[in-house]
Specification:
CATH topology: Alpha-Beta Plaits
CATH superfamily: Reverse transcriptase/Diguanylate cyclase domain
CATH class: Alpha Beta
Number of helices: 6
Strand order of the largest sheet: 2-3-1-4
Mean pLDDT: 84
Shape: globular
Low-confidence stretches: 1-21
Number of strands: 4
Order of helices and strands: HHHEHEEHEH
Helix content: 40-55%
Strand content: 15-25%
Number of domains: 1
CATH architecture: 2-Layer Sandwich
Largest sheet: 4 strands, antiparallel
């Protein structure tokens, strides 16, 4: 999983605007887009994921709601073969709210950020549904709450859950 290492990496996220006059896209805009979105799936990648997670945490603290991070790793089709990440991305995005984020963080891994959760059990319910929506086998982990100041900490906890599950299933 490759994530930006400093807040300086976030400048391109906050300043990004792909719209240009006459429909022409500059090399700079093309570079920004490539840095923020996965070429195969069109999903956000690490820098944009962290920006959206940070925003969801701020909103959660302000509104008194929780944010859940779901880490789906080692995605494979139901027969155990290679998975088409494009189809998984489309299925997940079709079932989630516009305020939720699906981001690609590895060759066979995605992270989903869902905010505005009001009850602890909501996070578990959404997690089970995500695995169903993906229509794939995977290891998955969840971390949630609103008290997190650092989005990377919440993301790391979800990843640790995936590793713990994978270790017990080996």
């Amino acid at each position: 999983m490759v994530l930006p290492s400093s807040s300086a990496d976030m400048t391109s996220v906050q300043d990004y605007d792909a719209s240009t006059t006459c429909g022409l896209i500059s090399d700079e805009d093309r570079s920004r887009h490539a840095a923020l979105f996965d070429a195969e799936t069109g999903l956000p990648t690490g820098a944009l994921l962290l920006d959206r997670l940070r925003s969801a945490l701020v909103r959660g603290r302000r509104e008194g709601t929780d944010v859940a991070v779901y880490f789906l790793d080692e995605l494979r089709d139901l027969r155990g073969g290679p998975v088409a990440m494009v189809q998984i991305a489309q299925r997940l995005q079709a079932k989630l709210r516009p305020t939720d984020t699906v981001a690609r963080v590895g060759p066979r891994a995605v992270v989903v950020v869902c905010g505005d959760l009001r009850r602890d059990e909501d996070a578990a319910i959404v997690g089970r549904r995500l695995v169903q929506y993906a229509e794939a086998r995977c290891s998955w982990g969840i971390a949630y709450g609103r008290a997190f100041e650092d989005p990377e900490e919440l993301l790391a906890q979800a990843y640790e859950q995936v590793r713990a599950v994978a270790a017990t299933s080996d």
